[in-house]
Amino acid sequence: MSFFNKILASIGVGSAKVDAKLSDSIIKVGDKVKGIIEVKGGNIEQSINEIYLTINTNYEKEEDDKVVDKQAGIAKVKLNEPFVIMPGETKTIPFTFELPLDTPLTVGSSKVWLQTGVDIKGSIDPTDRDIIKIEPHPLMEKTISALSELGFSLRNVKNEAASYKVRKRLPFVQEFEFIPTAGQFKKSLDEVEIMFSLLDESNIEIFIEVDRKARGISGLFSEALDLDESLVRFTLHENEIGKIKGILLDILNKHS
Question: One matching Pfam family, short form (predicted)?
Fold first, then answer.
């Protein structure tokens, strides 16, 4: 093993490479993330201290009157104990872990990716990034479908920085903005915003903000003071999912 090769490996040239291969890049919230990590040895023997996976996403935050993009880590998983990779050797490490229930969906401007990192002694650590498509949990999917049946269309989805009063584990919330494009609420509501918080596989907490259309001078005054908005919060169990359309209809009728 030449001293020159050691120098090159220390700056990443001829060092070990890492590649994550997912069994499926489309994953539902709460399902398992499965795949393998392939580590290929470089030009010299190297000590691999740690291989880890992180699930990351992006969100928006207002700073100094500007909207800036931020990054948040959703989960981090360590895969191995230290080992040595020989020149030209290939090692395969399988992995399985559960996607956290608060992982945002990849709709609108929201993105989610798997980052693979390797801690190699005395070298620049290689990384690998894989985009993942996140689909809704059935309780979320049924709620969105019920809103569609009531005449609402999804206009926008974004991850937005949230205050300590609203957020939970993560520094942001994912907001779903719907507008009435048909049905009985087309003339009475401006929009409906929804936030989901899965408590476990069987229960979901739903936040709904109903924005009424301004009517006349008093209506415009209410709109200016945000008095035209109503915030409703409730919990839904999987056994009640067949009632979600009726629950939403009652809430919208009450606040329209």
Answer: Spo0M
